[in-house]
């Protein structure tokens, strides 16, 4: 995997949001210096609790947010600028599927119109070809042609997400960001959407940045896992190594709370580390390691020194004072 071409490279990315408290301006450090990459054909699972900065990362990469600091390079081009200044061919090549298809699809438009829009905006088809392409997009997400004339409210949540996926495919992207694509859906349709995404990935040679708060989902989906905590990366590793030998105390805490089916899986889990303490507010991150309020292995230096990322194995990185 490590020999594959890097298509997305994020370096030192920061995104701070100003918030006004009385006459003071404070900053929510939603992302505070993250580095990661996505390679051709892989699925990077970006995992973290709610508020850890996952969506903000997605919105910076796709260009919906300007960045506070750092660089984003896509296929060799610096795209750290906001979306409006990005070359059109790069914008086409990178798409996003949002968590809630209910709000991401225009309720006034038929499915036909929703799928037609990106094709027209990018001048990708017209006349007969346009119609055929719309039908083909709908087929690629296994929805019948009759759906073209329905409105989003007339179909189920899972089907709406399939339409959102079809819309993202319209411009023939090579890279897709999936921001919790199944977390607003019934469990019964979640597996269907995941399987569809995996099939589409093979069919169209897609690379995914798959964002989720559900670590267990990543076991069979991601090629590499990146764990975020309070706007920083705690650990990243190839999936198999990650689940076999997690190193960061936070990762171990997350993994030990995942329910498993078999005793064999139970035996593989890290020893139970109880979740303790509170997640600090990102406007008021404690000095030192931001995990120091919850870490069972906290040392005096963790209240002073913010750890740096160190490599602990092939493609395996951990940011924790226990390793430096
Ligand atoms: N537009 C914004 N203005 C101020 N704070 C924001 C804004 N967007 C996100 N945040 C804050 O940034 C942090 C990260 O949010 P987000 O990226 O949405 O997390 P996640 O997707 O992991 O749940 C949260 O504390 C959130 O409240
Ligand atoms: Mg989010």
UniProtKB/TrEMBL annotation:
* Signal peptide range in chain numbering: none
Family membership noted in the UniProt record: Belongs to the ABC transporter superfamily.
Please give the SMART domains that the UniProt record associates with this protein.
AAA
Task: State the source organism's domain of life.
Answer: Bacteria
List the molecular function annotations (GO) for this entry.
Answer: ATP binding; ATP hydrolysis activity
Q: Which UniProt keywords apply?
A: ATP-binding, Nucleotide-binding, Transport
Q: What is this protein called in UniProt?
A: D,D-dipeptide ABC transport system ATP-binding protein DppF
Looking up InterPro entries in the UniProt record yields: AAA+_ATPase, ABC_transp_ATP-bind, ABC_transporter-like_ATP-bd, Oligopep_ABC_C, P-loop_NTPase
- The UniProt record lists the ABC transporter domain at 8-255
Organism, per UniProt?
Answer: Thermacetogenium phaeum (strain ATCC BAA-254 / DSM 26808 / PB)
Gene, per the UniProt record: dppF
Q: Name one GO biological process term.
A: transmembrane transport
């Amino acid at each position: 995997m490590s020999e594959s071409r890097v298509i997305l490279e994020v370096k030192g990315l920061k995104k701070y949001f100003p918030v006004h408290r009385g006459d003071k301006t404070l900053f929510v450090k939603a992302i505070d210096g993250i580095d990661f990459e996505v390679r051709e054909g892989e699925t990077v699972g970006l995992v973290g609790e709610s508020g850890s900065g996952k969506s903000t990362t997605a919105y910076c990469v796709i260009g919906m947010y300007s960045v506070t600091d750092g660089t984003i390079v896509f296929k060799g081009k610096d795209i750290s600028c906001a979306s409006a200044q990005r070359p059109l061919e790069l914008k086409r090549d990178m798409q996003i599927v949002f968590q809630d298809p209910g709000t991401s699809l225009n309720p006034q438009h038929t499915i036909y119109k929703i799928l037609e829009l990106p094709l027209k905006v990018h001048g990708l088809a017209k006349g007969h070809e346009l119609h055929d392409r719309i039908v083909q997009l709908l087929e690629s997400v296994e929805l019948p042609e009759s759906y073209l004339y329905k409105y989003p409210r007339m179909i189920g949540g899972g089907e709406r997400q399939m339409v959102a996926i079809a819309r993202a495919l319209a411009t023939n992207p090579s890279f897709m960001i999936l921001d919790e694509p199944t977390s607003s859906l019934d469990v019964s349709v979640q597996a269907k959407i995941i399987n569809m995404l995996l099939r589409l990935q093979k069919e169209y040679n897609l690379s995914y940045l798959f964002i989720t708060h559900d670590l267990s989902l990543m076991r069979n989906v991601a090629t590499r896992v990146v764990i975020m905590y309070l706007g920083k990366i705690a650990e990243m590793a190839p999936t198999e190594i990650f689940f076999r030998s997690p190193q960061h105390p936070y990762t171990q805490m997350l993994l030990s709370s995942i329910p498993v089916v078999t005793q064999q899986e139970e035996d593989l889990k890290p020893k139970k580390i109880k979740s303790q303490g509170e997640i600090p507010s990102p406007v008021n991150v404690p000095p030192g390691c931001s995990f120091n309020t919850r870490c069972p292995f906290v040392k005096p230096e963790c209240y002073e020194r913010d750890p740096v990322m160190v490599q602990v194995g092939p493609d395996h990185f951990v940011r924790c004072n226990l390793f430096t």
